[in-house]
Amino acid sequence: MKERFVYIDFIRALSIIGVIAIHTLSFSLGSSINLFIWNFLQFVVGAFVFCSGFVHSHYESKFTSFPVIFSWYKKRAIRILLPFYIYFCVHFLLFFFFPTFFTHFGLQKSFSYIVGSIFLYGGINASWLPLLFLQLTVLTPLLFLLNKKRILWIYIICCVIVTAVGTLWFVPYSWYRGTMWIGWSLIFLLGILAPKIKSTGKLFAGLTLLGTILSSFLLFLFSNFHHSINFTDNKYPPNLYYLSYAVAGTSLLFLLSKKFIPVIPEWTYEYISKKSYSLFFIHYIVLDFILNSFHRLGSLAIFIITVLISLIISVAIDWILFSSKSYIKI
Asked: Where are the domains of the chain?
């Protein structure tokens, strides 16, 4: 099991770096190369959710009573919400007092915007991730229960059907926060079930092939019906086009991790993995400042600087709090 978590650390570290790359490239899509990389890196968000499900898998034996589950809910809510609220306060205050340097992520000086951000139903864009993790947290004990009763397949079929309907009729963007858990839970569930499967190599090889075939078919279908083929346009909420691609990319990354892990020092990715959730928020502030302060830098330079400064800030926070070994497990 320890060895498998090393793979997950590697995948999660690459995923958060990929997320930073996506956000960096989103401001320079005039280049066809940047557009290509930005679009085909979108699977890393699915990989991030998969890793969360994998880590959650070891909780199943601990859910022995409702008080235990309730206590876990409380701890999870704190772990998910506290970093987000700290981030939001810092980013918003920087925007409020230094608006020239923090303008790229739609921050607004309005009461409704602040309330929407706090309660996760709107406001700042980054709030979608803590909302999703809260939704998946609530769902986790139910998935374990269904798995024990051997009727988990009913849940999976229902989610696939709902997602398929959303793929054909396209769910309005305004609905995505309330419905996104349906599609994302399939990748999350894959992470939960993966540790119980002995032949993971065959499983993920098959999923890579199946996901590639399905996403390619839907790419052809969408192109002929003049629907956007950008994965980000199909991610809120995720439809079958995005999910099949995300599963293929995540599965391939899992297979490749087994090749790279033996030759890559663990220290190069372990810290990034452990801090991936907080880095998700930190990089927003860093990227916002860099985009406003260094207009002549290329996207590659901005990406590298954002990653390095985000890591430096994370290490500094650990040092200040005297807790360099503690981290948020998502």
From this structure: 2-321
